[in-house]
Amino acid sequence: MGVVGRIGKVLGPKGLMPNPKSGTVTFDIANAVKEIKAGKVEYRVDKANIVHCPVGKVSFGAEKIEENLRTLISAIIKAKPAAAKGKYLRSVSVATTMGPGIKLASTKLGE
What we know:
Blueprint: H1 8-14, H2 29-38, E1 44-45, E2 51-52, H3 62-78, E3 92-95, E4 101-104
Antiparallel strand pairs: 1-2, 3-4
C-alpha cells in the first residue's frame, strides 16, 4: 500500500484505489486468483444510488445472462439495510456499454 499511496490522488477520486477490505490487496494470492477465475464480481453504488455491475458478455447465452441478473438482484436485495423502509428497488434497466437501456419489471426479478 505504501507504493500505491503515491498515486492515490489520481486513483482515489476514480474509485480505483486498491483496498484490503474489498480483497484487491491481499497476501493470499492463490486464493484471490481462484476467486477471480471463478467469477467473483463486485457491484458498487455511485452518488445517485445507481448500481453499476457487469452481468454478461456477448458470448454468453440469454439463459446465462438472465441467471447472472437474477443472482445480482437477489444479492442487492439481501444487502438491504434493516433501516430501509418501503420498496428497495425502484427500477431496473439493462444496457450495453454504450447503448440505450432496457427497463425491466423489478417485481418479476426477485422483489
